[in-house]
């Protein structure tokens, strides 16, 4: 029997060298929620959604960047962990125009805040990522609604100049997945974190619009975004998960002819 054994939620599991707690959990079908984590990219532990309780360690650990070790005893859904995730979600929902979890899901019960957001978006529907947003799914899973009293105003307007991508900074949670998609997956190195504190945002060189940067509009950042911070311009408020049918097709971006679903 392998000597590389640890315990997750009372269950003894094996692991490979250099595996993180998150990877071990996933390999054993144990669900740990994530938001900033992107498989294949460097883990950052930015969002703190994947925190777990490790016996003998005082603080909660980000499972995406904490290596598995022999003899570890880990709890992924303890009361302490759940409360920490709820607090994190509350802060994220208050960080901008995240109107998905405010009040009820009824169109007849919109709050003034939701109506203001809809007016700012020039749309009568809710968020363009409604039904396809990881932040929304986590908010529903942990029963967290946004606190309007805590909500922060985002100082940056929606960037609509680009032909294919809409950048909505009010719905960006600064998870960094778009940055990793651009810099580590596509290696275009167009965007990165800029400014600090309440002024923080994802920027191009000299903080220009994408159309004025070296962006080639490959779309990798859009598919990586877990919220409506980045959306496809032509599909915005048009495409919804329940209206779509998955088919096999060929990407027309270059001459390679990659197949995709």
Describe this protein with a few key phrases.
261 residues; 20% helix; alpha+beta; 5-stranded mixed β-sheet; 6 helices; globular
Please provide a brief summary of the model.
By secondary structure, the protein is α+β, with helices and mostly antiparallel strands. It has helices spanning 21-27, 79-93, 112-120, 134-141, 177-185, 220-224, and strands at residues 5-8, 11-14, 51-54, 61-62, 73-75, 165-167, 191-194, 201-204, 230-232, 249-250, 259-260.
Please characterize this protein's 3D structure.
The termini are far apart. The chain is globular. By secondary structure, the chain is α+β, with helices and mostly antiparallel strands. The chain has a 5-stranded mixed beta sheet, with helices on one face.
Termini separation (Å)?
Answer: 40 Å
Order of helices and strands: EEHEEEHHHEHEEHEEE
Radius of gyration: 20 Å
Assess the beta-strand content as a share of residues: 5-15%
Number of helices: 6
Considering DSSP H and I runs of 4 or more, what fraction of the residues is helical?
10-25%
Q: Tell me how many strands there are.
A: 11
Structural class: alpha+beta
Low-confidence segments, given as residue ranges, are 103-107
Major sheet attributes: 5 strands, mixed
The global form is globular
What is the topology, as strand order, of the major beta sheet?
A: 2-1-5-3-4
Mean pLDDT over all positions: 88
